[in-house]
């Protein structure tokens, strides 16, 4: 396989529907919450060059896009997805690293953040230098949190006044330190246990 990762252009608009379908089917398979996006929304991200795509000789292999808030003081990477045919090859990490470096160049003054329930994404973020933070350190822009309305866990977020959810908030501040591997390696077993405890506490109070 000869997979290339590039910033999106007009020739990539045709993949928008497949990208949406792959994101949705993956979320259903994992049983996790996810903010749904339309092909039109994905195409707009492509038009603004706020997205990257991975292709294997013209076949869709993976995707991720950039969101920005509060006058581009905060950016996040959303919709990270790898086609089922290309999973377990380390492609997700390559896409994430590519879009991370690209967003630092395009938005040099922005803090990069994300919220996720996926342990694989947490590990990738941790390797890039993100750190876990409370939601209070993330963007306060209502449009970001409104994007969570289509997530299956939105009622939990709403009940906690956008301060907590099953997701974990992670932040990279370029002014704080350079992009180095974290001093304390990501421990999947510990994070999985914390995730289970969090879910038990929130779900029993619903």
Automatic annotation (TrEMBL):
<dbReference type="InterPro" id="IPR016181">
    <property type="entry name" value="Acyl_CoA_acyltransferase"/>
</dbReference>
<feature type="domain" description="N-acetyltransferase">
    <location>
        <begin position="11"/>
        <end position="151"/>
    </location>
</feature>
<dbReference type="InterPro" id="IPR000182">
    <property type="entry name" value="GNAT_dom"/>
</dbReference>
<dbReference type="GO" id="GO:0016747">
    <property type="term" value="F:acyltransferase activity, transferring groups other than amino-acyl groups"/>
</dbReference>
<protein>
    <submittedName>
        <fullName>N-acetyltransferase</fullName>
    </submittedName>
</protein>
<keyword id="KW-0808">Transferase</keyword>
<dbReference type="Pfam" id="PF00583">
    <property type="entry name" value="Acetyltransf_1"/>
</dbReference>
């Amino acid at each position: 396989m000869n997979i290339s990762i590039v910033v999106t252009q007009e020739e990539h608009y045709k993949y928008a529907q497949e990208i949406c379908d792959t994101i949705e089917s993956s979320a259903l398979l994992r049983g996790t919450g996810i903010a749904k996006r339309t092909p039109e929304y994905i195409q707009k991200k492509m038009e603004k060059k706020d997205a990257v795509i991975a292709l294997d000789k013209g076949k869709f292999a993976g995707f991720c896009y950039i969101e920005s808030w509060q006058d581009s003081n905060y950016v996040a990477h959303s919709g990270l997805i790898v086609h089922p045919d290309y999973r377990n090859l380390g492609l997700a990490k390559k896409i994430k690293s590519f879009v991370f470096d690209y967003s630092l160049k395009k938005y040099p003054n922005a803090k990069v953040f994300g919220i996720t329930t996926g342990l694989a994404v947490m590990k990738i973020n941790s390797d890039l230098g993100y750190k876990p933070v409370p939601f209070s350190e993330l963007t306060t822009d209502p449009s970001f949190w409104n994007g969570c309305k289509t997530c299956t866990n939105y009622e939990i977020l709403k009940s906690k006044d956008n301060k907590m959810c099953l997701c974990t908030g992670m932040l990279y501040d370029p002014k704080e330190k350079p992009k180095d591997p974290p001093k304390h390696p990501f421990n999947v077993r510990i994070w999985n246990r914390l995730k289970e405890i969090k879910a038990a506490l929130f779900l029993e109070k619903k």
